[in-house]
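DATA SHEET
Item: assembly model
Revision: 1
Owner: S.N.
Input lines:
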Amino acid sequence: MSSAGVIDDRRYVLSLGCPDRTGIVAKISTFLAEVGGWIVEAAYHADPDTGWFFTRQAVRASSVGIGIDELRAKFQTVADEIGADTEWTLTDSGERKRVVILVSKEAHCLHDLLGRAAGGELPAEISAVIGNHKSLEPVAKAHGITFHHVDFPKDPSERGPAFDEVKTLVDSYDPHAVVLARFMQVLPQDLCERWAGRALNIHHSFLPSFVGARPYHQAFARGVKLIGATCHYVTAELDAGPIVEQDVIRVDHSDETTDMVRQGRDIEKLVLSRGLRWHLEDRVLVHGRKTVVFS
Amino acid sequence: MSSAGVIDDRRYVLSLGCPDRTGIVAKISTFLAEVGGWIVEAAYHADPDTGWFFTRQAVRASSVGIGIDELRAKFQTVADEIGADTEWTLTDSGERKRVVILVSKEAHCLHDLLGRAAGGELPAEISAVIGNHKSLEPVAKAHGITFHHVDFPKDPSERGPAFDEVKTLVDSYDPHAVVLARFMQVLPQDLCERWAGRALNIHHSFLPSFVGARPYHQAFARGVKLIGATCHYVTAELDAGPIVEQDVIRVDHSDETTDMVRQGRDIEKLVLSRGLRWHLEDRVLVHGRKTVVFS
Amino acid sequence: MSSAGVIDDRRYVLSLGCPDRTGIVAKISTFLAEVGGWIVEAAYHADPDTGWFFTRQAVRASSVGIGIDELRAKFQTVADEIGADTEWTLTDSGERKRVVILVSKEAHCLHDLLGRAAGGELPAEISAVIGNHKSLEPVAKAHGITFHHVDFPKDPSERGPAFDEVKTLVDSYDPHAVVLARFMQVLPQDLCERWAGRALNIHHSFLPSFVGARPYHQAFARGVKLIGATCHYVTAELDAGPIVEQDVIRVDHSDETTDMVRQGRDIEKLVLSRGLRWHLEDRVLVHGRKTVVFS
Amino acid sequence: MSSAGVIDDRRYVLSLGCPDRTGIVAKISTFLAEVGGWIVEAAYHADPDTGWFFTRQAVRASSVGIGIDELRAKFQTVADEIGADTEWTLTDSGERKRVVILVSKEAHCLHDLLGRAAGGELPAEISAVIGNHKSLEPVAKAHGITFHHVDFPKDPSERGPAFDEVKTLVDSYDPHAVVLARFMQVLPQDLCERWAGRALNIHHSFLPSFVGARPYHQAFARGVKLIGATCHYVTAELDAGPIVEQDVIRVDHSDETTDMVRQGRDIEKLVLSRGLRWHLEDRVLVHGRKTVVFS
């Protein structure tokens, strides 16, 4: 996969999904050729199961004579021709995206994401970190990132106001991604819907195995020989949203739960950071319960 | 992991599990030293969860002055000292083991196992292949292996006599391993118990995900990014026996179920052949629902 | 990756490489749309290093009103427009391809390829097996495949006539792929050139490490923690041709050379079969010393 | 692998290598039993190639009535009996080890190691960071770690005094490990010898491929399909020391050198942190050019 790492590598990125039929690629590529677009990446997928077609195309912004807004307006005509069900976005990699990270006490994913953002690996700025504990405030501050603490009452039935506060905080940043980086609270349905397609969670198991709490303990009890992690979009059904990325690592009988926790962290970090980068680069197209990932 | 591949590399192999306490290793190693045993492999595991201790030790047969039966008789005294709960076996790698393979129509695991046996990769002879279809008879015959066809009626409630026939056939070979190489029949409880610790199944998913029928279809529907296979001992509860080995392979949105079936075959072959070899080399110690694998 | 496994899934496959410039995709996709081509797979790569553009597109044969020869004739005009340097092929997945396999004594890759061909995993027929030893003749015959034995003299300087015989035999089948499946002879330069882009070798190391003879012994001596295998096109420089596929497996201090040989076989089989399948499905585009693989 | 993560899990760890002969295990385990040692981990390796035997045994410190110094004194007698060539260490996991990290400008390995140390994943304290550039000083300081800047002249022939300063600084901490975390200077021979068995380097290729400078550029030029990283002990011969750990990640034609650099970082971090942890837990026994790793 290619990344748009350098500033003069500014790109316009089209992501599109629609019911499949003949001629879609020709329409899109003819349009891109007409505006002078020099294609640097192009990927297609025709899904025989759903009958849908998906594409992602990146052109050099400098090769196109017009700005992103004008390009969007022009492409609307093409999209209309393709059909009313067409879902598409056209983004400018030169417009920095914003990410808000939700955390509890576990530090490793936050450390990892902030380190990657600082190292230029993520095409986004981290707008804020929101924690239901204060323990990770110093980590955020060491990176110069705003930290908001929202107190969550012990009784789950009394957490509504806390979630409202989180909602207000998150929305104040209008983020392109809301990352649940080992945030140990289940989002209420209204927030799942509000942030649909933008909220990414890291679950510390190879889903659909070991849904819910303490997956490493479940894995230890079952005696599996590999443990994993899953990055998925958050939906109202717990740990059942569209999967973006998964990976595993080998364990054996000598690994106790604490060893699995330690080894699993490495996989969680890899899987979450990959999933988030792909999301931010508009490489992930959600369709129903599944994703197309043009990595 | 080391394999005892050559004939003059004959070994006596002790596998032992018992409640853990101080001095067990000293007792065993002193015994082995007293009989002159040159240790070529030794592995230990103390399980803090169950409080059990496990070991596997292989000595050069030529370094020990006595035969395997006499060695077993002598070791009984040591085992008694260690404690009444001690479970142990002492085997002679020079005694060829026997394997019976159960199949349906899927050829790849059978092909793979017969090829490995022919190539000297499995420390066993394949005594027979038993199929509930006739389609794999030529494969077995091409390798000079006896094939038995047992007809299974369509109605599951009428399959008792067929299973009885399978039981009689299998038991006539007194095998060290009964391998369900994509045998598409669920073993009845009495056979699970009869062959407990000897019957190995390959399930074409990364358990505990996708138990039961058509796991690749389940995987496709869920949109997972890795598919896997699991080699486990057969128990009365479907796909829930102690896991011996698992592995996975990456898939993506472009892989349809038929692609997963094809790619999954490679993982099934690897996982089953590894699990079977470890079982035959007495590297797998079962304790409760889990295994210790001294690979 | 998708495979064209079933007969009614007949496809026309265009593979093309050319110096990159704006509008190529539009030209190709407009052409495909005009002939009614329903695109089932499409992949692109713009190489900033060489300034070349590569694409592979598969359309349903049934969606195109004309035959492959007429389609080729029509596309020639498009190719001419794109530029004189354009390299392209247009193939019909309904035309069965032919493979000739060269072997010595090692059986595992031959077993594996014949098994996959029999199981419908390879979109080709195995036309013949040619061996410089007779030991694998029974394997070929068991699959009903012609086996030719060509005697190779011990003195490398006297092997010219033997290679001439191999050349004559291979060419008599006009194969789409010549597979060196652990063929322990170095092809002379004239054969490398004659079969350029068609001759695939499996080397039992993770190239460029351990070029030449006995790579597992070299790996053991160096103490590496992973061993691998490489499928590459054969060129005049030993083990230096364009790499199609590589993979590795973990080893540790307890693995002796014989263990590495055994474990390495599994990787060799996987890597060679993947590379060959991609080659046969026109997924591999060679450019200079490197490959673009639209897997 | 098990880790001694919690304070009341204090262990005494014996690591030993010697020419192999009958009875060594019995001698050691009898000794451990006599001092009341409750074995929590035990691993053995008999190397047929060199004729050496290696073992690592960990006992609960609380099960042994005496301190580590007295235990060492007692074990000396056993070691003498085993033979004059015996190499052994007996360490107390309760004695915190010290690590000094050498860096240049690349931040990711330093970030990773400091994060792991802070998270309790490394059984050691980071005593200091030494850089030949000042750019990573803030990273060290954010973790409260001393940073020393040593200026290196551009002319390699004039770097002697700089290396002398590094030597004095490193030795002032008497560290158990000197980690070259992407330190872009080749250690002079006297430092290699001075820190033999303690200096760990991370090389950003799968050695022995791509020794020396700019390995990702070499990998890109060769067109490999996997890139890797290697953690090894530093010796006078560049990138040729005993390998502790290696791993790889898949790349394809679409990955440019900058992509490989980014993806390779993840592997470098994993490989270096694993290798360092094993070294600090006395799991790595060096023999000649190779290592035994009781992970």
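QC remark: DSSP finds eight helices and 13 strands in chain D.
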